[in-house]
Write a structure and sequence with these properties.
352 residues; alpha+beta; BirA Bifunctional Protein, domain 2; 8-stranded mixed beta sheet; 3-stranded antiparallel beta sheet; 12 helices; binds adenosine monophosphate; binds magnesium ion
Length: 352
């Protein structure tokens, strides 16, 4: 009832606003032209609705995590090494005086440093990944994106999945309460989520996809098109967990009682929107990480400070990252991710 009244008030005011606003033309915000000419499309009323929802999403994410005892830290942007587990994307290297430095593809290594000091940390972390050119067609890959990236000590990946579920529920509820008019304006019929979210092991996910004719491997990450297919089979967010050993970065922890299986997970959005979150327990021992680096063909010399840190000892931890633009895209029901960010960088496209 409260919503209804508010809605009526909004309709009256929106209509008044609309009548005094210049017509922006029929720009297709999902087109690549809209990315190249952002200085024009940023003025589109739809962009304003989306960015208002995004502001609420960021507020809700932060408030939720603070209530759970997390403290916000500033994310690094450059450093001697960064996350190698980025699924076919390339890292960016800059010249830092006499030393080559990486632009952060994710701050995973730094989160492990921080939890020696605080039990629960998070950051709004900017990431750069030169994604393959063909990823421009997925509508969910950007070269520059942001994650709310968090880490907590002495917890399990089951606890992390519970946290991810509660976090998404809280964000959706608050967006529905506070951005009712924006969702209405976007034509998005967002429904309350229904926990507990379904959970599939990686093996079960692969079996389900194979039964529908998809070519999917038991020892690799699920390819983009199959991810969309699996996501389309669901009406609620869901988890895939227990990924195979070599499919992920050296930092995801192998289950000591089930060799070859990682204690990690992804959360996927429903309705074909695909991956939302990746997370897992960390391999935090020096010898364990060295072994995994060898297995995945990574040169330990590139991770000098990180390995030295592990040698001195860091606590066991678990963490995950949720992409802010993908979350905005799903909540707003947008066709492409570049409608969910003010200044998008789409693979291969030169834009402001
Ligand atoms: P990852 O470390 O690759 O699992 O990334 C963590 C999260 O960041 C993902 O679950 C997505 O929500 C988001 N993400 C990863 N890559 C991209 C990208 N290229 N564009 C936009 N969001 C991304
Ligand atoms: Mg991932």
């Amino acid at each position: 009832m409260k919503f209804r009244k508010f809605h009526m008030f909004f309709r009256k005011n929106l209509m008044r606003r609309e009548s005094t606003q210049p017509i922006m033309g029929q720009q297709n915000l999902g087109s690549l032209e809209s990315v190249r000419q952002r200085y024009q499309t940023i003025k589109h009323p739809t962009m304003k609705l989306v960015l208002t929802v995004q502001d609420q999403i960021l507020t809700s994410l932060r408030e939720f995590l603070r209530k759970k005892g997390f403290i916000e830290i500033l994310a690094p942007i450059i450093g001697p090494a960064t996350d190698p587990g980025i699924r076919g994307a390339k890292q960016v290297t800059i010249q830092y005086y006499d030393t080559p430095f990486k632009v952060m593809s994710s701050m995973i290594l730094y989160k492990q440093m921080m939890i020696s000091s605080f039990d629960k940390v998070f950051a709004l972390s900017p990431n750069i990944r030169l994604e393959p050119l063909e990823s421009a067609k997925t509508g969910r890959h950007l070269v520059e994106f942001r994650q709310i990236d968090l880490e907590m000590v002495h917890a399990t990946y089951n606890e992390a999945m519970h946290l991810a579920e509660a976090l998404l529920l809280s964000v959706v509820r608050e967006v529905m309460e506070n951005c009712y008019e924006e969702l209405e304006g976007l034509g998005r019929d967002l429904r309350e989520l229904n926990p507990p979210f379904p959970r599939l092991t990686h093996k079960e996910a692969v079996e389900r996809l194979r039964s529908k004719g998809h070519v999917v491997s038991y020892v690799e990450e699920i390819p983009w098109d199959a991810e969309v297919a699996l996501s389309s089979m669901h009406q609620c967010a869901f988890f895939i967990y227990d990924y195979p050993l070599v499919s992920r970065g050296f930092y995801d922890r192998e289950d000591p009682n089930r060799p070859g299986i990682l204690r990690d997970f992804d959360m996927l959005y429903p309705e074909g929107f695909g991956e939302a979150i990746s997370g897992g327990e960390r391999e935090h021992t020096y010898t364990g990480v060295l072994k995994r680096m060898k297995l995945t063909g990574i040169d330990p010399a590139e991770y000098e400070w990180y390995l030295q840190m592990l040698k001195e000892g860091v606590p066991h931890s678990v963490g995950f990252g949720i992409g802010v633009e993908r979350l905005t895209r799903w909540i707003c029901g947008l066709k492409t991710i570049w409608e969910a960010v003010p200044f998008p960088k789409v693979p291969g496209i030169v834009s402001p």
